[in-house]
Each structure stands twice: as structure tokens, then as C-alpha cells.
């Protein structure tokens, strides 16, 4: 807990107005880290969680498409079943082994650090579909590249997430996906080289995830814990963290909001509320994933973009891997609702430009989860069986709550009765997506 001297330091070092401004910025900075920690805690720390993967250094593969019952993360996809694993790199590096994957099957491993930066990729786009061994080494590792390693990946945090995706071509393809996933292996470097492992490292005292606390003034306690795995800090954040320290933010520092002076506590709480409001506004004005996911270098210190990415769909891909576009508004700038039928039309020359494949997924609002429906269809795309193109090669997708009729049902994307958003994923996007030559069409009232 914060002692009397520390309380006085916080009280004397910053005015209430400054404390509020700092807290707003710090909450936005911390937001993606907090919800990354939520996933970490549920998957790698809490064995009572239904999403528990078995601890660190283990894969949990999913081969069935996601459905409405899966609510662990917002805006999930059901095109590419996930393979989840968390690595603690403090003791030693780990090796990811991937099998040879058939050329006609897309797969990818997205590597995410504690900041939620996508720091590396392995898969069809970047390394091909051949077999390989990839070393994940923490910031403090100073060894030489071992024999048999194809590439060394170096994150800036001690704990990282491996998020694999393997393309699934419908329910009948599940066994083929499972066969590929069985070839994904994680091995400590010492076991890979058949040498003695280094000494064990202490197990961290992971704070229990409590979303109400994590999104209140107590976000500082969670952030201080997470910062212990991010040392040394990035040079670009030295001054930022010095500013944050004025309200008690520092790696490993205990935090007790109740012990703060009432004025300071109220100011920080006000800053958290300001941060939430600013984030909500930014989310409402974001319709594309082009620039909100990526490396630290790509995001260029824009912490609001990083927070928006976590709020709208944490663990989204970097744009070169996949682009997410869509809308919650129709052509009249009104909220999409399932009780109103819509048509999304693509001319033959304006079909989504995708090297691998594309799909559109339906999510309810405000929860951003998949929507139950009578035909169990949660997304539609170029791999949807029975999809019907028009005689001129154009394509119409019918988006509504009730069936558009037997003749159109093959192209029906079921919606909830109330508000929703539609998100398109383009895997291996073409240049037209980036330069503005292709745009997601506005839904027209049917």
C-alpha cells in the first residue's frame, strides 16, 4: 500500500487539474493492456475459467467455428479457428514449430506483446506454408541463434501471446484443420537443444481480474503490475512514464486508492471518466482497421488508436495481413437495425480484393458478439457454399432479421432485431484497399 510519504509526494507533486489530465491519458494508455491482461488471466492463470488453455507454454486449439455462445472476446471471427498460447520468456526462450501446411490453406501466427503491439508474424503471407522452427526470445536474452532455427523474434515484453488462425472451409473441413493444428508445437529452448534448463524464475503474483476495478481508479494497480514485464521502458516513453509517476504509476509500485487524499482521488477518478468518454467517442468515429493495429513503430505513439483497437476488436491483425472494414450505419447515416432489410451490393469489378479470402461477419451492439439465427450463419463470404452471384458477376448480400425468402437465402446474412454492425475481413488485402481504389459499399434499404 502507499505509505504516508508516498501520499504526500503524490499530493504535493501534482495539482488536481493536472492529476485529472494525467489520469485521462494514463487510462487510455493502459486500456489495451488491461484487456490484454483479462485474456491472459483467464487463459493462462485461472484454471476455473472456461477459456483456460492450461497455463503458459501450451496451445489450446479450437477447430469448430465460433458461435454466439463464445463470448470471451469481442468481434471474434469464425473463418479461422484460433490456436491460443501464452509464453513467459523470463526464464528462457521458446521455440514455435509449425508443420508444412497445404498450399491452398491459409494460416497465420500473430505475436502480440503486453502493450498489444503486433510485433511479429509467421504464416502464409510472411514465411510461407513450409515447416519451420521460430525462436521467441525475451528482452534480456543474449544467446546466439541455435542451429535449426529459421528466425528469431524479439518482443519488448517478457510475456507474449501467440494467436494462431487456421482457415476453415466449412463444418466438413474441421478434421483437416485439426490435422494442421496438431503440428503446432511449443518447446522451451533447453528442451529443443536437449540441454539443462536455466534456473526457475519466481511465479508472479497475478492480481485477480476484476473488470469493475480494472476500469476504475484501481486500473493503476493493474498497470503497475504489468509494467514489471516491460522493463526497461521504451525510450520513447521515458518522459511519459515520468509524468504518469506523479499519480502513483510505476513498475511494481503498490497502489491504494483509499489512502490517497480525497482531492487527489477525486481528480484521478474524474480523469478515468474523461478517458472513458474520449475512448467511446473515438470508437464511434472509427470505421476501419487500417491504422489501429500494428507495431509500436507503425502506431507512432498514438495511444488512442491502440485503445480503440482493443475496444473494437482486440487482437486485430496488422493491415498487411488482414483489413477490417465495415459499418454500423446505412446510406442515410442511420443505425443499422435488423427490422429493416438492407442490401450490400458489389459490382463485378468491385468485389473485395483478397489474396486469400474475404468474409463479412454480423455482430450485435453494443456487445459486439455473434448473433443467434435460425440457419446458424454468422458470416458470409467468398467461401460460403451456395453463394449466388448475379448474371453480370455482381453480388448482393441480404442483411436482415428475417429470411429474405428461399430464392435469396443463400446470400442472407442474418441480423438481430435491434442494432448491429457488419465487419468485413479481407485476408491478404490488395493495394486497392490501401490506396482508396476499393471501398466497402454502403448498405441500401431493401
TrEMBL record:
This is DUF1254 domain-containing protein. Residues 57-188 form the DUF1254 domain. Pfam families: DUF1214, DUF1254. Residues 321-430 form the DUF1214 domain. InterPro entries: DUF1214, DUF1214_C_sf, DUF1254, DUF1254_sf. It comes from the Bacteria.
Amino acid at each position: 500500500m502507499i505509505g504516508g510519504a508516498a501520499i504526500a509526494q503524490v499530493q504535493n507533486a501534482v495539482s488536481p487539474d493536472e492529476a485529472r489530465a494525467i489520469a485521462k491519458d494514463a487510462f487510455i494508455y493502459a486500456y489495451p493492456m488491461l484487456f490484454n491482461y483479462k485474456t491472459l488471466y483467464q487463459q493462462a492463470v485461472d484454471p476455473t475459467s472456461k477459456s483456460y488453455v492450461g497455463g503458459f507454454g501450451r496451445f489450446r486449439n479450437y477447430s469448430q467455428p465460433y458461435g454466439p455462445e463464445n463470448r470471451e472476446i469481442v468481434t471474434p471471427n469464425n473463418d479461422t479457428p484460433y490456436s491460443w498460447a501464452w509464453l513467459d520468456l523470463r526464464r528462457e526462450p521458446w521455440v514455435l514449430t509449425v508443420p508444412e501446411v497445404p498450399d491452398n490453406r491459409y494460416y497465420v501466427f500473430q505475436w502480440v506483446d503486453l502493450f498489444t503491439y503486433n510485433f511479429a508474424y509467421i504464416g502464409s503471407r510472411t514465411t510461407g506454408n513450409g515447416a519451420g522452427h521460430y525462436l521467441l526470445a525475451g528482452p534480456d536474452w543474449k544467446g546466439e541463434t541455435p542451429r535449426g532455427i529459421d528466425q528469431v523474434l524479439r518482443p519488448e515484453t517478457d510475456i507474449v501471446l501467440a494467436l494462431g488462425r487456421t482457415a476453415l472451409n466449412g463444418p466438413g473441413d474441421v478434421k483437416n484443420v485439426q490435422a494442421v493444428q496438431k503440428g503446432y508445437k511449443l518447446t522451451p529452448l533447453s528442451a529443443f537443444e536437449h540441454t539443462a534448463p536455466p534456473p526457475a524464475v519466481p511465479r508472479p503474483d497475478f492480481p485477480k481480474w476484476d473488470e469493475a476495478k480494472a476500469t476504475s481508479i484501481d486500473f493503476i494497480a493493474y498497470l503497475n503490475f504489468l509494467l514489471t514485464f516491460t522493463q526497461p521502458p521504451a525510450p520513447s516513453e521515458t518522459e511519459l512514464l515520468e509524468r504518469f509517476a506523479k499519480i502513483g504509476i510505476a513498475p511494481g509500485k503498490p497502489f491504494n486508492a483509499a489512502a490517497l487524499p480525497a482531492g487527489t482521488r477525486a481528480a484521478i477518478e474524474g480523469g478515468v471518466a474523461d478517458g472513458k468518454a474520449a475512448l467511446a467517442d473515438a470508437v464511434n468515429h472509427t470505421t476501419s482497421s487500417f491504422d489501429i493495429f500494428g507495431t509500436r513503430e507503425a502506431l507512432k505513439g498514438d495511444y488512442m488508436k491502440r485503445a480503440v483497437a482493443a475496444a473494437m476488436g482486440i487482437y486485430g491483425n496488422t493491415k498487411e495481413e488482414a483489413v477490417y472494414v465495415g459499418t454500423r450505419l446505412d446510406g442515410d447515416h442511420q443505425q443499422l437495425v435488423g427490422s429493416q432489410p438492407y442490401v450490400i451490393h458489389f459490382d463485378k469489378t468491385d468485389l473485395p480484393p483478397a489474396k486469400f479470402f474475404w468474409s463479412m461477419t454480423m455482430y450485435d451492439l453494443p456487445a459486439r458478439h455473434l448473433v443467434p439465427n435460425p440457419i446458424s450463419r454468422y458470416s458470409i463470404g467468398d467461401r460460403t457454399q451456395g453463394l449466388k452471384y448475379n448474371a453480370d458477376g455482381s453480388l448482393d448480400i441480404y442483411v436482415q432479421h428475417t429470411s429474405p425468402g428461399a430464392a435469396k437465402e443463400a446470400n442472407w446474412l442474418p441480423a438481430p432485431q435491434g442494432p448491429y454492425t457488419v465487419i468485413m475481413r479481407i485476408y491478404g488485402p490488395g493495394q486497392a484497399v490501401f490506396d482508396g481504389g476499393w471501398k466497402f459499399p454502403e448498405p441500401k434499404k431493401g
